[in-house]
Amino acid sequence: MDFGSFLAAPEIKVKIVTYRDIFQNKAMIEDRFGEEYKNTSALIKMDSADLKQMSVKKGDTVIVKNSFGNIVVKVEESGYETPHKGIAYMPNSPWSNMLVSDETNGTGVPKFKDIEATVTSAKGAKVTDLEF
Amino acid sequence: MEGNYYVCTGCGLLCDDIEVELEKDAVSKVYTACRVGVAHMKEGSREAVSQVDGKPAEEAAAIEKAAEILKNAKNPLIFGLGTSTNEAQKKAIELAKKLNATLDDTSSFCLGPVVEALLQEKFNTCTLDDVRHKGDVMIFWGADPSDSHPRHLSKFSYFPRGEQKQRGWEEERTAIAIDIRKSHTAKICGSNFFQIPPGGDTEFINALIDGVSGKLPKTSYKFPPKRLLELANILKGAKFGTIFMGLGLLYSLESLDPIIKLVEVLNEKAKGEFHLIPVVGHYNMRGFNENLFAETGYVNCVKFENGEAKHGPEYSTVEALKAKAVDAALIIGSDPLASLPRSIVKNLLDIPIISIDPCETLTSRKAKVYFSTAVTGVECGGSATRMDGVEVKFDPILEAKRPTDEEILTKIMEAL
Question: Domain A43-132, what fold?
Fold first, then answer.
């Protein structure tokens, strides 16, 4: 059993795969600093069992972090029929890019679709702002 | 095209059947385009803005400052250009030569390797029009055009009638998705969706090669051999098959060899021909690859020295920034502060940035010099190369209130 499940605020290890979303793409073109882009980008989709283990529900905020970054985003159930515990999905965005490793093995290609991170409840903290 | 049809430069499909209505010098309605295209085509008509140090400046002063930054740099980086016309891209290549600059576009961390292999004729390819007219089997592999290229299936690859496909998708076309998740495109493919684990593509390709070659297909993740053989049979029966290769597949492969081999084997074993088309994102990424290839023999990641191009991953934007090898950046139509890993792109903040972009972006906000330029296809015309290599010419819809990126690049070059 995952040790995290015994903690008061269980932390779940995930592998994050990024993807494209038409609504997010449209929102970026209209206003990349706007609320719609933030709402369609700063989110993570997880297996319902992972949400249950973290004691969070759809729309809650979670902290997603690794040694490269630490962000607060909204969590959703993926809705995929096939269970995918431990695999999470994020739209490709400046938020997901805050977690991408700088290790490229000299190839020039970062692992945009292969991010290891932990997720835990943000206990109501606000979504990370888009700034540099 | 005849009549009042316009080209949408919102993605690599370059849809050429767009109608618009204007109101007060702006596009008010867009017909035929997808959701992304509508947003894109309404983007134009903004006022010209030039900034130096975040403050409004005369264009001439901003040009002078940009030229000064580039002149003082020992190894400037020129990056972006996926949303520039062929004409602007050629100008940027000329500028890179003059400056002995490092020149790269987003394709170095995107589908560039596939376009490179295509230009080197390492696999069989075709046009999207060929697929519309003849295609009977199409595989969307690690690609979700329903989200990234919304009219891919409706204008070209699956739903439309074609010259030799008069009964269309209902009877004559089979769409297949191979992906790690049930994307919107995978949903359309119904029972022809093959879900594989992350990183499982190479094994799946090898198993499929075995399947079409009459061997028992096996994977370490125990994908049901029966289903693999069903897929192999569909592919073997294809008269005109196409693999649409997306980033999901590319990022999962250590080399392109397995997918190139699969296309070769399918061409031997299938009833008809098999092709591969990279599902290129930006409207003129392939144009940049082809223009640079014609000039240097490379599609990206070059460093000019006395007119000669050196090439290698160390000249990619990512490696050049990681190694802090570049000391100024001219960024055209791209927002690397948003699209690259923060762990790497943070180094961009240590060097002066010149941003040329129709939109305000994270990168333009941090730029020493910023030029707001015309949206191509809306405020200016030109030509571009579609994801399948077809050249598309387009006219502006509106009279531009702001300069083109090509004009700004020309002025910077003159000021050097």
Answer: Barwin-like endoglucanases (2.40.40)
